[in-house]
């Protein structure tokens, strides 16, 4: 037998594979409710966010169903038809952005020109316009973070910021958004973006760093909050629609 290439597995994928194995061995039959996230995290010796990423992966794959206000249940499925999803963990991506973009915001407070700050305000206005028309404001959001990165005049950092932001378009991140992003959560996020602009415009690196850090910590927390009582999409007025153009122009 030839030597096989060893591929590192992301933590959420290891958790998902272990839960999948339990289902396949009959530990959790179809229709069975899985233990709560907190209990799974304790049993597996991992964090709740990692368990959430794993459960979202299994939901995308069709192995489980999230029933708002009730729990997470094993779905009817054909094991041969299940396709494993991969990609970066959404919550780990947000943490990575937090470490990088907080410092970029501090740099922007030192170096951004008035015209560049006006560009941030234009990006925020685009976010608001997208929300007002019931679309996900991802074009304006990407443009906002992209313009902060541009202030560092470092093409490598600009590319990294863009690539990390675009991870929100992978199936795992999108499914998390389906559960937790609402018009209200986006209104809060827009206010957080305004705080970042105010801090940069005040020429305070410390305030800008704190504002960006706060925004991304809260973004992480919004995706790890308790499961909503019902899906945001159940109320058309509660959740923005997916835009036909998901990336910044």
How would you describe this protein?
It is built from 10 helices and 2 strands; from the N terminus they run H-H-H-E-E-H-H-H-H-H-H-H. It has 249 residues and is mostly helical. The chain folds into 2 domains: 64 residues, Orthogonal Bundle (Arc Repressor Mutant, subunit A); 145 residues, GntR ligand-binding domain-like (Four Helix Bundle (Hemerythrin (Met), subunit A), Up-down Bundle). Strand 1 and strand 2 form a beta hairpin. Helix 3 packs across helix 8. The longest helix has 22 residues. The chain is elongated.
* Secondary-structure-derived class: mainly alpha
Question: What form results from the Cα inertia axes?
Answer: elongated
Q: Say what the CATH topology of the largest domain is.
A: Four Helix Bundle (Hemerythrin (Met), subunit A)
Q: What portion of the residues fall into strands of 2 or more residues?
A: under 5%
What's the CATH class of the largest domain, please? Mainly Alpha
Gyration radius over CA: 20 Å
Number of domains: 2
Most strands sheet: 2 strands, antiparallel
Helical proportion? 55-70%
H/E element order:
HHHEEHHHHHHH
Query: Superfamily at the CATH H level of the largest domain?
Result: GntR ligand-binding domain-like
Work out the helix count. 10
Widest sheet, order of strands: 1-2
| Average pLDDT, all residues | 89
CATH second-level architecture of the largest domain: Up-down Bundle
Give the total of beta strands.
2
